[in-house]
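Q: What would this complex look like in 3D?
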Amino acid sequence: MRAVGAILISLVLTTAVIGNAYYQKKQFYPSVVYITKSNPSMAVIYLQAFILVILMGKLMRKVFFGQLRAAEFEHLMERSWYAVTETCLAFTVFRDDFSPKFIALFTLLLFLKSFHWLAEDRVDYMERSPVISWLFHIRVLSLLLMLGFLDTHFVCHAYQSTVTKGASVQLVFGFEYAILLTIIVNILIKYALHTVDLNSENPWENKAVFLLYTELVMGFFKVLLYLAFVVIMVRIYTLPLFALRPMYYTMRAFKKAFNDVILSRRAIHNMNTLYPDATPEELAAADNVCIICREEMVTASKKLPCNHIFHTSCLRSWFQRQQTCPTCRLNILRTPTAPSHAPPPQPAAAPAAGGAAGPAPAGVAPPGLGMAPIPPGVNPFQPFGGPGPIWHMWQQAAAAAGQRAGDQQQQQQQPRQQQQQSSGSGSGGQSTSASGSGANAPSNQAGGASGGGAQPPQQPGTSTGSNVPVFCPFPFLPFMPPPPMPPANFAGLSLEELQRMEGHARENVEARLQCLRNIQLLLDASVTMMHQYSMVVQSTARMPPPSSPPQASTSANNTSSEPVPKPSVTPAETRHKFEKGDNLEGAAGPSINTTTTPTTTTTETGNSEASPVNDETREQQEIRRRRLQKFAQTSQTTE
Amino acid sequence: MAGSALRRLMAEYKQLTLNPPEGIIAGPINEENFFEWEALITGPEGTCFEGGVFPAKLIFPPDYPLSPPKMQFTCEMFHPNIYADGRVCISILHAPGDDPMGYESSAERWSPVQSVEKILLSVVSMLAEPNDESGANVDAAKMWREDRAEFNRIAERIVRKTLGIPTP
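A: Here is my prediction, written as structure tokens for the whole assembly.
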């Protein structure tokens, strides 16, 4: 009612102004001159023009959209408010060009923009509307074609004008219409996708993926356009404040599209590699309805480790947001698909290789055994999608070392060692899965190898609940941390334990803290152990190097399945750690000297004969031994 | 084929019409727009809301069922878990990512397995047993804890109001 009133008033005013002018001047041209010269008359004419434009817009809207939905109207109002503000900001940059034509062009731009927004909303709504009539298709198509044509025309016009007359406000128009053109292309692609989907009998599963990629590519073009525009504007005029807000939103949308694509790709990848397709029998056993879309599963469906079955496409879109099973909320990334945890309760191998390595290789042996202090139970990398490569390497090395221990100790008659020998050689076979026994073995072996000087500060076996014979004759470390109770392998954590660590309640936080503390203890322990290694190296350097050890470790190398070059790399790392350990803890006295020697002398003899010598590896060993001596010297000098 | 959100909403509507749960009516306000529903919930028996019929509005996001709908009572409500403007605050309506109250475990959050029916049933049980730990309406939570008689009196007034019976 108010709108009609405003229209009528403006109409009456215009008639009055024109009538008055004609009444005074009697002729056409003088009256036109009179109106343009008089400011009040011009104001009325402008008002009338504005109202005519709005009426025109309403008419066009009726033709192309019919009744607007409430959400569309709200959206339109919100966006046009911003657009008007930004236009006012643009006026400040181009105040020299200010003229009625300039305002008319901006008004036209605003109108076209609002039609683009409405078209976008309409096409988005296609997916949610139960009935799509022919009228809808005709309207959308004709509107898109018309808008696309207008955009191209204005872009060309702006380009021509800039080329012929130099940079002017046409730059802004050209850029704005170019942005609008990308929007049109985006809408067209969406429209095509939706139409294809609507006309197909079965749901089109890849549509969401296509939409994602469209969004990404179009977002990229828009970001490029905005960047180019800002650069040009800064060089010619000044910083275009009015373009900053849309630029920010465009960049944010692009980032989101990028993230979405990455997440989607990850979800697809996970699904294709980790989860098996559900078989018809499994589908029949379940009630055959995908709980996400509530439709029958006749098309591709996947089974999760928790035995819940869903449509592949439904799962994909859900995994993009959450990596949990929709039904039981099992975290699918934390749960390995194959039941890989078989906690070996057998006592792990212990100082088996005590004889294998003499005093000198005590520092050499750790390459394979460097991980010894880290018990197999604790693997902080595991939650992030399975064992990392380092962990694998460690486990293999551990298994190899275990095997080595078993092989070499055949002549040794100590009952304890026999017991461990079996577990050691057993673990040698299963390289990764038997990480429990495999990694335990070398840890104790390291203890023996260094004559006990490098006894692991805590027994990893405690985690798996195995009763490893504690081989710890060295109480000389007052700061030795008590054996923590590290969680068994995260994969082996029970659902309860995992759930206990989720959430924000006090107990959950405490559980997490406990877990972190365990990890810290383990880290401390490994630092301690490194320190001890370094002391052993020092002590061995002070002693005259015995002749047999190289052979002993050579044999160890022969039997191990490891590639030969690896040990030659690792000493560098260990040495690095030694120095670190020295810095951290300060050097302890060379008291190990006395303790190491007895053990080594006893074991040395049995081993030097037991191992066959290979020429190639001997060379390698010689190099390694010399390098070690050098390390020892450097570490001495650094002290 | 229409969008998956639309198909799922249609399926749920059909299910709710064929097997309506006791004390709950729900459906789209307008059959041309399946993303806005209206629901009528009767107050659970044996509670202070007994006998009331409470209208509510459900707004579904375009990516339903991946995101939860929003629910808002359109009548006056006085309840610890309902904001003054009628919005309902229960964990089942919160996406697993955000935690407005900082106390909910992810196990009770939204997941595509939930449905309109489950939401409305949860709301009924919320009416019966308010959770005064999470105060969407702090006044109501305080009164529920400290002055139950007054709370019951207000609830009765609201029940009468929804039924159009003048308060005595």
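A: To summarize the key features: The mean pLDDT of chain B is 85. Chain B touches chain A through 33 residues (CB under 8 Å).
Q: Very helpful, thank you.
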